[in-house]
């Protein structure tokens, strides 16, 4: 072989190698490794074709990446909320939010005599003081016999972790472009809302979850909770920020001493928000609001004096639609701010490729 022919051959081999490497990077080579939100290294052995979701927030993330068809199993909570998760109402129920049916999972995961490692389970992951995650840690023992099922913890609860979790899910599902597109939207909306309230007077906010034993033992949202994080981003000062734990207990007397400017109460529902009034929903919400107004000494609190007590739909406070929740929070704390929560909600529906009922409210009374 002549020297010239040899050099041409080497160049062709090199070009072929570079082309192969570029194709591998573009297509996504396997196995893939990520460190999930619980700090666990997870190996994805092959492209994911089947998904089991423990949390609705993870289900929303999978849907935003265009992969809902791959979900084969859901928890009872997701199944019981078809208005919120319409695309998943026919999926197999494999347990509850805190207890999987491992035998059933084994049945639906098995293909022939074995489990092909193209299946993952997406769980909650929210940190503790020890650095561990409640949800993922509690399921590791149960999934230990299923060596080909990858158990993954992602945090779509706290707004500061949503984009990171979306990036990781994009890598897991080979949907990096879609994940990047969502993250750009999330970051743009968050930045716009923060700019809209910048420089406005900070509002003292009391965030109540509820009570099982009366006003002497109220559960509130403390530092590190997702709801409190949204309030902080919206220009509010959570009066429970100096307490210990994400969900500390306080008395009503303590709340009165703090003198909050705004009172927010967390309310869940199996439907997408509440039907606009007058409706059964708004009658129930008004009753809950009146309970706060009737508490001893309530009329001494600035939030009561200025009629700034609101009930907030739980689902908008967490997950991929938290920019919608943030917009509502900012508008509640700063009514004069140039923010349109409805417009942001419309943008979110386009991302999800869904058209939800139009007669819904997410805050009561509406801001």
Q: Can you characterise this structure?
A:
This protein is of the alpha/beta class. It contains 13 helices and 18 strands. Strands 10, 11, 12, 13, 14, 16 and 18 form a seven-stranded mixed sheet that branches. It has a five-stranded parallel sheet with strand order 5-4-3-8-9, with helices on both faces. A two-stranded antiparallel ribbon has the order 1-2. Strand 10 and strand 11 form a beta hairpin. Helix 6 packs antiparallel against helix 7, helix 7 packs parallel to helix 12 and helix 12 runs antiparallel to helix 13. The longest helix has 25 residues. The chain is globular. The N terminus is likely disordered.
How far from one another are the termini? 81 Å
**Average residue-wise pLDDT:** 88
The CATH level-2 architecture of the largest domain is identified as 3-Layer(aba) Sandwich
Strand content: 15-25%
CATH class bucket of the largest domain: Alpha Beta
CATH-assigned homologous superfamily of the largest domain: Nitrogenase molybdenum iron protein domain
Number of strands: 18
Number of domains: 2
Q: What is the CATH topology classification name of the largest domain?
A: Rossmann fold
CA-based shape:
globular
Residue runs with pLDDT of under 50 for 5 or more positions: 3-26, 128-133
């Amino acid at each position: 072989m002549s020297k010239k022919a040899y050099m041409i051959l080497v160049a062709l081999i090199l070009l072929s190698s570079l082309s192969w490497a570029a194709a591998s990077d573009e297509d996504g080579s396997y196995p893939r490794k990520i460190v999930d939100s619980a700090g666990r290294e997870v190996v994805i052995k092959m492209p994911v074709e089947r998904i089991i979701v423990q949390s609705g927030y993870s289900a929303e993330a999978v849907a935003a990446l265009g992969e809902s068809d791959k979900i084969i199993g859901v928890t009872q909570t997701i199944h019981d909320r078809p208005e919120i998760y319409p695309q998943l109402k026919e999926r197999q129920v494999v347990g509850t939010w805190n207890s999987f049916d491992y035998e059933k999972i084994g049945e639906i995961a098995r293909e022939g005599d074995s489990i092909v490692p193209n299946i993952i389970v997406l769980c909650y992951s929210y940190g503790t003081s020890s650095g561990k995650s409640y949800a993922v840690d509690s399921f590791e023992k149960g999934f230990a016999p299923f060596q080909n099922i990858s158990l993954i913890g992602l945090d779509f609860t706290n707004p500061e972790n949503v984009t990171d979790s979306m990036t990781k899910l994009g890598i897991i599902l080979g949907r990096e472009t879609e994940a990047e597109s969502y993250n750009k939207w999330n970051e743009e909306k968050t930045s716009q809302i923060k700019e809209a309230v910048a420089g406005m007077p900070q509002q003292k906010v009391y965030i109540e979850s509820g009570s099982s034993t009366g006003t002497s033992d109220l559960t509130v949202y403390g530092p590190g909770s997702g709801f409190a994080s949204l309030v902080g981003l919206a220009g509010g000062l959570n009066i429970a920020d100096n307490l210990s734990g994400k969900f500390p207990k306080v008395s009503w007397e303590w709340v009165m001493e703090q003198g909050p400017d705004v009172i927010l109460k967390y309310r869940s529902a199996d439907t997408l928000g509440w039907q606009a009034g007058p409706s059964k929903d708004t009658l129930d919400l008004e009753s809950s609001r009146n309970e706060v107004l009737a508490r001893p000494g309530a009329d001494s609190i600035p939030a009561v004096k200025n009629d700034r007590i609101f009930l907030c739909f739980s689902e908008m406070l967490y997950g991929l639609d938290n920019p919608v929740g943030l917009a509502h929070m900012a508008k509640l704390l700063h009514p004069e701010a140039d923010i349109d929560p409805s417009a942001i909600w419309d943008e979110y529906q386009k991302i999800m490729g869904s058209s939800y009922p139009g007669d819904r409210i997410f805050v009561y009374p509406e801001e």
